[in-house]
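=== RUN LOG ===
request id: a7f3
mode: sequence -> structure
chains: 1
length: 153
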Amino acid sequence: MLEVHVLASGSDGNCTVIESDGEAIMIDAGISCRKILKQMEQEGVDKECIKAILLTHEHSDHVSGAGATARKLGVPIMCNQPTFNELSLGNVDFVPFDPSRSFDVGQFHVTPLPTMHNAVQPQRPEAQHTVAVAQYSDLIHTHHAAFPVWRRH
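=== RESULT ===
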């Protein structure tokens, strides 16, 4: 079953977990690691299922907890190189992606989509089927963009 957990949304921070069949990806980590872990526990998200943290762009309301959360969960940070170059996340496992190519994270197929935003190289997450509705509704509110995320069958 596919589940979308919006842990935070808005100018105070953004963080969404997309989970399916025991695997999950986190899109943005714009609140503290402590708050992310607390929200995950309240939402019933097992921290062991997170495979990576995907960052849409470098603004603090999308990345402020990314470094600490990646270290705590033992997962890589994934974003394009220009975005990563703008960040100071400390010692993290960084996996760059080419913003013009799709890639897989566990059972998820991710396609970066460029968007207009006052950031170095912002990407727009969106998703197919059920996830698309959740991600698009978030985009309407934030006017930020993300990645299409498809669950591989």
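=== NOTES ===
Residues 98 and 145 are 16 Å apart (CA to CA).
Helices lie at 33-43, 60-63, 66-73, 81-85, 130-142.
=== END ===
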